[in-house]
Amino acid sequence: MAKSKKASASKSAKMVYYFGQTKTEGKGKAKALLGGKGLNLAEMTSIGLPVPPGFTITTEVCDGYYKNGEKLPAGLMDEIQKAVVTLEEELDKKFGDDDNPLLVSVRSGAAVSMPGMMNTILNLGLNDVSTEGLAKATKNERFAYDAYRRLINMYGDVVKGLAHHDFEVAFDKVKKKYKVTEDTEVPAEGLKELCEAYKAVYKKGTGEDFPQDPVFQLQLAVEAVFGSWNADRAISYRRIESAKGNTEIGNLIGTAVNVQAMVYGNMGDDSGTGVGFTRDPNTGQNKFYGEFLINAQGEDVVAGIRTPSPVSEMGKWDKAAHKELMEIKKTLETHYKEMQDIEFTIEKGKLFMLQTRTGKRNGIAAVKIACDMVKEGLITEKDAVLRVPASDLTHCLLPSFKPTARNAADVLCRGLNASPGAAVGKLAFTAHDARERFELGENVILVRRETSPEDVEGMSAAVGILTSTGGATSHAAVVARGWGKCCVAGASDVEINEKAKTIVVNGRKFTAKDTISLDGTTGEVMAGEVETQEPKLSGDFAKLMVWADKYRTMGIRTNADSPADAKRARAFGAEGIGLCRTEHMFFEADRIIHIRAMILADAEDDRRAALKKLLPFQRKDFEGIFKAMAGCPVTVRLLDPPLHEFLPHEAAAQKEMAAELGVKPAEIKKRSEALHESNPMLGHRGCRLSVTYPEILEMQVQAIVEASINCAKKKIDAQPEIMIPLVGTAAELRILREKVEETIAKTVAAKKFEGKLNILIGTMIEIPRACLTANEVAEYADFFSFGTNDLTQMTFGYSRDDVGGFLPDYIEHKIVPVDPFQSLDQTGVGQLVDMGVAKGRSVKGKLKVGICGEHGGDPASIDFCNRAGLDYVSCSPFRVPIARLAAAQAALSQK
Amino acid sequence: MAKSKKASASKSAKMVYYFGQTKTEGKGKAKALLGGKGLNLAEMTSIGLPVPPGFTITTEVCDGYYKNGEKLPAGLMDEIQKAVVTLEEELDKKFGDDDNPLLVSVRSGAAVSMPGMMNTILNLGLNDVSTEGLAKATKNERFAYDAYRRLINMYGDVVKGLAHHDFEVAFDKVKKKYKVTEDTEVPAEGLKELCEAYKAVYKKGTGEDFPQDPVFQLQLAVEAVFGSWNADRAISYRRIESAKGNTEIGNLIGTAVNVQAMVYGNMGDDSGTGVGFTRDPNTGQNKFYGEFLINAQGEDVVAGIRTPSPVSEMGKWDKAAHKELMEIKKTLETHYKEMQDIEFTIEKGKLFMLQTRTGKRNGIAAVKIACDMVKEGLITEKDAVLRVPASDLTHCLLPSFKPTARNAADVLCRGLNASPGAAVGKLAFTAHDARERFELGENVILVRRETSPEDVEGMSAAVGILTSTGGATSHAAVVARGWGKCCVAGASDVEINEKAKTIVVNGRKFTAKDTISLDGTTGEVMAGEVETQEPKLSGDFAKLMVWADKYRTMGIRTNADSPADAKRARAFGAEGIGLCRTEHMFFEADRIIHIRAMILADAEDDRRAALKKLLPFQRKDFEGIFKAMAGCPVTVRLLDPPLHEFLPHEAAAQKEMAAELGVKPAEIKKRSEALHESNPMLGHRGCRLSVTYPEILEMQVQAIVEASINCAKKKIDAQPEIMIPLVGTAAELRILREKVEETIAKTVAAKKFEGKLNILIGTMIEIPRACLTANEVAEYADFFSFGTNDLTQMTFGYSRDDVGGFLPDYIEHKIVPVDPFQSLDQTGVGQLVDMGVAKGRSVKGKLKVGICGEHGGDPASIDFCNRAGLDYVSCSPFRVPIARLAAAQAALSQK
């Protein structure tokens, strides 16, 4: 019986992994299992770095905790007990000892770093008895009671959810009694009294005594860490990250818990604590970038309460520790071949590594670090291409201030250059306010003393963030950098009055109605609106683009409707236009009147007469675009929107239009009403217009052909591709292709053109039925271009104009992992794309296939497109570099 | 060289098939090749029936004619020449002979009968010389010139498109000259003059002399028949038939041409012509049903110009011929095992069969004939089931007049009972008028002297058809019967004044504003509206239904929202409710106020309070439906439409609602505007409502559960199935299923119910993505029900409310073969259904799957559903018998 019981127990997964001198069980295990922090503690231990020993409780346990109705799984506490015993033996300390007690920290650590989101408890193991033991062992009573009061406070806050305020009131009372202002000035006696006062706060708030059993403390702490996994702010952070395309974060099953022997940076002036990056996360410079505080615990640095000193000055204080840290930087980068984000503590002159992880950086730094590491021989070109998150290239493409405008700017003060970029907006004083005004279309800058996880929604909504306290590793700085959002932190000259909604900077007052400009690259805060400029695309950026182009296999085109857009996209590296919408061309003042006249016409002849007036405009547009894209294909989509979009709906505008056209307003109203549709998205638009009004198609094709002929005469290599939108049946394309071919022939004949025109005729695949019958449709198509915007609308049954009513709820409830209009739904819509490609190519092996929905600029979607075998993606000009890099990453990672 | 040429010639398909004593080349060939008429002429010849010899030009030649730019294919005229020679030899007559000339008829004949649609030419071969020859041979100059003038008239009309009117004017002149009123009274001399006059009309109209070469006449006639294949009226007929689900007609490649030696029913009083059915096509009675005219050509009967005598009286005139005809009836039915529609001619006492084909009949007759033929041992039960067109069962389900109302009715006159049923409507005098008023929602009865193919659109729009001339086989009668539309023909007491838009019946005048009632079963025309009643479903109908139920494998459910509908459907044989829409229940006056209050509420509590008031109504509704469907499953769909559908949009109605609810009208306007959606079809509706407002789902589920408990207490076997609509992701169903389960448990606990409730929870599959991810969705579904209305909308990208703008054009251009909302698009939407079934069952082998879109009552769609492996179809109560039969046919034909 005993044997079979044991066998069945051994079957269940190991829940606790030890790391230390005794053994390092977690080395080489999966990050998904141990979390990033846990795995890295094991790794660092295994490569000989000074890491306080401890153990990691797996993410599977967290998953089990939730599946088990928020209860710890059976057997967990036994495994923890065993690990604690090993720890006690290794350190020769005992939990709750009255002589030399073992103290531990308890920290969360998921597989993906979530800064500031998860709860941490320090000094666990202290109770009334062991605090005395700690005082004895450290010969420092003040330190011991300071640690104890911190534990009670943190424990009350994190495990029991008590208000921090009550503890502060108690602390203030003690400080008053001892007539001091700083925490550090309170004597040991005062801290002893404070511990009693804190225990009273704890009892008052919870109805229980502060737990004295260290193992019970540990159990509740582990539960609290697990509990924090589903706290609102954690869910909110994951949601925002997911929405930005971070699919990894959506797949997390929970957090691990790291229990680690405490070391103390607050044991006196020979102790300290710091955090840092092995390279500069803003610029990418290969220079340790960090901050430290003397006689402090690590949380003090991150929380931004005291302003720390840069690590570059650490040598002045402790040369040996600084030297060791610089050696560790090298060891870590050689081991991980990546820039690291570390936490360290110096306890009485001895350096301990508490954490390492891949360092977050903005796109500019990411590009530089990748290029530098190739130069340094640490990584290969391919690694470099794979390493820079494609979306982060936006940072390289961020605007900066115009030097002339900068020189003339009214600089109010300077803070820390926490996250680069240039931001101009009006002041918002709360996250809520920032969110609301953002939704009303306003550009706002969120101004906070310091930010906290509760602020992330508002930070996400703001164009820039300004804080008056906190350093370059404060919450505001870390989060803003992750998002590539401009941030100036610790601008201590900025006095914030949240209630009055004003800031005062060196005597000058600004309200919510005032605009300021932030330079995240220099840290300057300027009054008023300073003019911005576009970024330069040279140096490392250009090098990375060259590598990307070397390894990618898909072409990159752009969606552009004007010569200006076409030129811009070409500068960004676009190899053609994948979508040139023709309807935008009709909205200009000198054109809209003709299209309206056409819509009002009852007879085909009148429509043709109106269209004839549009022809020269269209021809000129196309000629300009063909010229800007000379030598590259230009996919022109024929008129797509329903006709009523061109008519005014308001009475006043109808009256105006009537006057212009010389008809009665009633006539316009009548026509507008006749064209009204219940669901215009599914109405009379796209190729359906060409079936009922072939004369529109004829005019557009004539314009394309005449523009091509004009180009040919000027030796400009125009490569038009005529795209027929919204095809759902092969018959539509057959009929319209015939009409296009006829019109081409007719126009060529009329122009007596004898050169060669190479015009392709294809279709936009955006209706589910077109995917399902792609083998039939392909018979009449020279190319397919997936219009995944509409395809997503129809596959999900979501009107993009109306999803506001439920999609936020859907994302929150994880009904959809991300907004399917931002990142292509590979599970559903992706099947239709795969089907469209496979069926299309089943009849035309070399059918050219691309994508021109907005997904064409989304890295995750580009990865999918590469897998689906698409020939190219097309995206907005600004996203072309991102697409180039994402395409290279897809090609390399899918090899 | 000569050899290889011959070989290559023999490779091309045979174009002409001979039938006669010499040889019968077409026996056993495909109907698709020879057309129905051509094949049957060959068949009749082969079983020894007296058929004038001739030959058939294949449908492939017609197809080739169109593919060849409307030119006859090379070699055709050679083949025709050879067949003509064989014919001349067999009959010992010669084309164009001055002694005993060969004369032929030229008739169209597609594989599917298209009554009155195609052109016919008689007496071909006559010219100035051979007419004299015919006069000699028949010793009847009057007859010969009468034949010649008919040829010139018909030829001018059909081949050259000359106006019939010009010929009539010439005829009237001759009649005036000879002072006669009837055609038959004109003497030979007059007819001779008439031929000259007709030739002059011909020359004036065409600029050419009437052709004298019989072979050339033949060639032009063949081309004319081919040309008529794509005449507007033929296209229109095929379109209407296609739209009604006749897929066979959509697959036709063209018409065959039958050239056959002429026989004459107008050679004097010992000659005659007739048409008839081997059984009564109205009642199905096993009694020859036909009409004949003495001394007339066949076209005279069909055209309805002279009123013929019933065949039952034929024995009085020619006993032998009548007896022979009755024997032929038997031979034909034994050979074809089907009721036949025949044409015959008696030439100087000798009977000739000119045509046989399967006889059209209405549903009532179809059922009786099928049942009788089983009794007679001609066919099996399975044959009987397969033979009755499922859609035609509507005829058995047609309303009749209430006997009491009938007895009291104001009978104006009696015509022929041309097509059974009861019709009540206002008078329409032109097809166009009928169509227009139909589209405005009016019930109209089309009143015409006689109908012609040009009238079919109006006939289709009318609820009934009344003609003042023409018999039971006139155009109006044949077409109306085919459609199961009530028709009274040849009501000679009705004087029609088309211009004044009045009829006068025995001195009483009726205008377009007056309502009349038609009894198609008795032929009576009644003034005013006579009350109608539902049909009885017993006798042969019941027998056929028993057979259908024996052979079908799919279940048949109904879409019903009320106990009354449920009862009706059950009487029609429904085995459950496949779709019970709950929103209709909210629109009643005493309920709408509560749902409106709910919509206006800002807070969940207020919504719950309003919903609480709706609960008793819903519970009562469900209880009634469960009771009516006791022992059968009832699929209840949770609230589906967007909330704004429940709010009034007009200012006046909003004001009224505000008064009722005690709020400001502005509040209602604001809410209504906030709920407005650009594309409500793709908006906040279906399960999306339950995700954002779970309290609505909770109220509905609570009502279902309480109703079930109440039923259980009354020993009523309620079998609710809760259907969650518009699911596009598995997560939606997972979350909502949990909520439904919770609510069930909560309600059962609150009611302290200890019995067993068997409630299934499933989903409506109506979003393409649900099909694509059906394997995920099925994890949380006890059943799937395909909502093919919405699935069609999204798969095609067609808004059903807006297709009017282009779908008619699409059907006309054959871009879609039929309206995809009427008959399921098997090519596209069908793939998604197949995928949904296969993927769903891949994770749940026995997943119950049905369909509840309107396609569930369409025979072609039911055939598809059976192939797709669905467990049941659900349709409107009235279509349940049709679905039962169609399901049996699908099961039998797919075996």
TrEMBL record, chains A, B:
Q: What class of enzyme is it?
A: transferase
* Cited InterPro entries: ATP_grasp_subdomain_1 (IPR013815), PEP-util_enz_mobile_dom (IPR008279), PEP_util_AS (IPR018274), PEP_util_C (IPR000121), PEP_util_CS (IPR023151), Phosphohistidine_dom_sf (IPR036637), PPDK_AMP/ATP-bd (IPR002192), Pyruvate_phosphate_dikinase (IPR010121)
Q: Which cofactor does it need?
A: Mg(2+)
Where does the record place the PEP-utilising enzyme C-terminal domain?
538-890
Any Pfam family from its record, for instance, is: PEP-utilizers
Q: Which residues form the PEP-utilising enzyme mobile domain?
A: 442-523
Quickly give the catalysed reaction. pyruvate + phosphate + ATP = phosphoenolpyruvate + AMP + diphosphate + H(+)
Keywords tagged on the record: ATP-binding, Kinase, Magnesium, Metal-binding, Nucleotide-binding, Pyruvate, Transferase
Question: What's the Enzyme Commission number for this chain?
Answer: 2.7.9.1
Q: Which residues form the Pyruvate phosphate dikinase AMP/ATP-binding domain?
A: 32-69, 76-308, 319-376
Give coiled-coil spans as residue ranges. none
This molecule's function is given as: Catalyzes the reversible phosphorylation of pyruvate and phosphate.
The UniProt entry's sequence similarity note says: Belongs to the PEP-utilizing enzyme family.
Name of the protein described by the UniProt record: Pyruvate, phosphate dikinase
